[in-house]
Design goal:
By secondary structure, the chain is mainly α. It has 20 helices and 2 strands. The chain has a two-stranded antiparallel sheet.
């Protein structure tokens, strides 16, 4: 009845939490499974539950749209409708093609939480309200089968457990609600850039809302969904406060909520976001300085101060939380890479030998960035998942080359260094791609983990292309 098992559901860049976990196995499972051991994904009751859930979601979407101004008003409903079909496709793909998926393991635990609510409501809320780094079973319900996860998985399962109460534990309905959270985050990112560049709202929608990888992999009961929600809140509220100077209390609250969610689920996103977003703020301030002499005096001082500030910030964080210390991070990077390379048989990639020191790690910088953004190549595909990923990476390569050829390489460089928004998007994308590419180890996980950078990467390409078109247009005649 009891067994000590190794939990295989880990998250990128946080393998310091790898540990043996106690799992309680009942004689009968609460989730009906097929012969392959995967949950049944559809019941006749879903014919009533799922339409009702969708009706509620669309009701609030339409109300929100009616109060919105252009440009988001055009794309709000269509962007979500595509994700409804994508969620169904995601479930079918993992159930019948891939025949595996962490989402089904998460749903199993959500189902046990739902059952716990019916058995013992007090214990249910004890788990839901417990600290995120302590996801433990009450001693008096040992018959309940629930997997033990680290904090990033526990938050996802707790949210799914709450959703299960309002959906009668329907798998499809829970997955659709998680897709809705993810879509909210994507919409927030789009709102920010559309407010900065309203003249490019249509092509920005394609670059952010309708990116195929984001539409497919950023759905359902996955860490990517809750991560998109939190990061969208963080980015949008940060821009509202520091770029648009809207200092209403709600944006500070949403910013803290975004930091909390992303910090729990994927803290490395915060570590990549903070230095780049403050670089963005500094560049915006520098752009307002018209005196060339003053710029030459101020810029070196500001960048030096920023470098020292973040060095001491990360050093301070590492002194409080050992798992974020520099030594631990270096060892964790190597451990993650070696583990996932072994696990990703048939889809692994090789960056060479990585030692737990900064010189070795940063020697793989551009290899890691390349593997995240532009690999796998078509000829590296030996699985369906890798083929899908290779099509996505090939599309990214072709769009990048097309933009550079249309704009011109030297003109593109000039545009980048003349626009703080583009610098932020590119620097964030590069550092995020480095972290993900260095630690993923196989393309199966990489295709999911890289999707938060795609809206920013494609936004940068859009702005480079549009700025280049503007530079090539002849000046209007003066009267």
């Amino acid at each position: 009845m009891f067994e000590l098992a190794s939990n295989s559901r880990y998250s990128i860049c946080d393998y310091s939490r790898i540990q043996l976990n106690l799992q309680v196995r009942p004689t009968k499972t609460l989730v009906q499974t097929s012969m392959q051991g995967l949950p049944q994904i559809f019941y006749f009751s879903d014919l009533i539950i799922v339409p009702m859930v969708l009706l509620v979601i669309y009701y609030f979407l339409l109300r929100k749209r009616n109060r919105m101004e252009e440009p988001l008003k055009k794309y709000l409903v269509s962007g979500f409708t595509i994700r409804v079909f994508s969620t169904i496709l995601f479930i079918l793909f993992h159930r019948y093609v891939n025949r595996q998926g962490d989402c089904f393991g998460y749903y199993e635990s959500v189902s046990y939480l739902n059952d716990l609510f019916l058995r013992n409501t007090t214990e249910f809320f004890d788990i839901i309200l417990s600290p995120f780094d302590h996801y433990q079973m009450p001693n008096n319900i040992s018959k309940l089968d629930m997997n033990f996860y680290s904090s990033e998985e526990s938050l996802l399962i707790k949210i799914g457990g709450v959703f299960s109460l309002f959906t009668f534990n329907s798998l499809l309905a829970i997955f659709l609600l998680m897709t809705t959270l993810s879509y909210i985050g994507v919409v927030k990112i789009y709102q920010t850039f559309a407010a900065l560049y309203p003249q490019h709202e249509r092509i920005l929608a394609l670059a952010i809302i309708f990116v195929p990888s984001v539409v497919f992999w950023g759905t359902s009961l996955t860490k990517e969904s809750i991560c998109f929600y939190g990061f969208g809140l963080l980015f949008h509220s940060f821009a509202k406060v520091f770029v648009f100077k809207d200092e209403r209390l709600k944006y500070f609250i949403l910013m803290m909520l975004g930091v909390l969610i992303v910090g729990i689920v994927k803290v490395y996103i915060i570590l990549a976001f903070l230095p780049t977003v403050f670089l963005w703020m500094i560049l915006l301030r520098i752009r307002k300085i018209h005196s060339l002499i003053l710029k030459n005096l101020v810029v070196p001082f500001l960048f030096t101060a920023l470098g020292f500030a973040f060095f001491y910030f990360y050093d301070y964080i590492g002194s409080i939380f050992e798992i974020y210390s520099l030594d631990t991070i270096q060892k964790t990077i190597v451990t993650n890479y070696e583990y996932l390379t072994r696990e990703g048989v048939g889809s692994k990639y090789d960056l060479g030998v990585i030692e737990p020191n900064l010189e070795s790690i940063f020697s793989k910088f551009w290899m890691a960035v390349n593997v995240t953004l532009y690999r796998p190549y078509i000829w590296e595909s030996n699985k369906i998942v890798m083929l899908v990923s290779s099509i996505d990476s090939t599309f990214t390569i072709l769009v990048t080359i097309w933009v550079l050829l249309k704009t011109g390489i030297f003109r593109s460089i000039k545009i980048v260094f003349g626009n703080p928004d583009i610098i932020f998007c590119i620097v964030f994308s590069i550092f995020f791609a480095f972290a993900v590419g260095l630690t993923s180890g196989n393309f199966g996980t990489l295709i999911r983990y890289k999707i938060p950078i795609l809206p920013f990467y494609f936004t940068a390409l859009v702005l480079i292309y549009k700025k280049g078109r503007e530079m090539l247009q002849p000046p209007l005649p003066t009267s």
